[in-house]
Amino acid sequence: AGTGKTLFALAAGLENYANPKKSTTGKKSKGYNKILICRPSTTLDESLGYLPGTEQEKIEPFMRPIRDNLFTILNGTGVMEPYAMKRAEEEVAQMFADDYIKTEALAFQRGRSLNHYWFIVDEVQNANQNQAKTIATRGGVGTKIILLGDPDQIDNPYLNERTNGLVYAAEAMKGSKLCWQVTLKPEEGERSPLAQEVAKRMK
């Protein structure tokens, strides 16, 4: 928790989207057509259809952490003047309005084949094994899928540290040359001293 999983994945996606570099084979990457972000939330998946508004309006409350991380990437964590703050918020909003970054409901990904996407799926510890498989099989040509999560932060009452989608995917894909696993340690936390103290004490 608090190690910057979402922030790092989003920052790397923005860098690869805007500034494609040569791959390890020496060939220049063509980059990605879109940055797509989903968050498998039990509440979102079960009650999405009953919320008013369009798909984007329905999932907006669940995507606020993405906007927060994007704001931090672009503007840092320092105190800002009111005018600068408003301008920065408008810049973040414009990136979504211009389709630079797309946020979609996990429930609507079945059946898709995504080519040249930087596909971030956050909070995968709250996805079940079937959802994890569905997500992982969306990747088409040139797509990178980033599954993020923390088995100690499961909110889904039907999952545990062994049955959640994140652990299932990590175990199933061990040894694959197409996959990498990165584990961030507690001492690498980037949260405030207060947040880290709370996380340590309120287990």
Question: Overview of this structure, please?
Answer:
The protein is built from eight helices and four strands; from the N terminus they run H-E-H-H-H-H-E-E-H-E-H-H. The chain has 203 residues and is an alpha/beta fold. Strands 2-1-3-4 form a four-stranded parallel beta sheet. Helix 1 packs across helix 4. The chain is globular and about 50 Å long.
Short description:
With 203 residues, the protein is of the alpha/beta class. Helices cover 38% and strands 8% of the residues.
Question: Which key terms come to mind for this protein?
Answer:
single chain, 203 residues, four-stranded parallel beta sheet, 38% helix, alpha/beta
The low-pLDDT segments are: none
In spatial order, strands of the major sheet run 2-1-3-4
The number of helical elements comes to 8
Roughly how many Å is the radius of gyration?
17 Å
Helix content: 25-40%
Q: What global shape is seen? A: globular
Distance between the termini: 12 Å
**How many runs of DSSP E, i.e. beta strands?**
4
User: SSE order, as H and E?
Assistant: HEHHHHEEHEHH
* Helix/strand/pairing category: alpha/beta
Work out the strand percent. Answer: 5-15%
The protein's oligomeric status is single chain
- Estimate the mean pLDDT confidence: 84
Q: Report the sheet with the most strands, covering strand number, pairing sense and barrel closure.
A: 4 strands, parallel
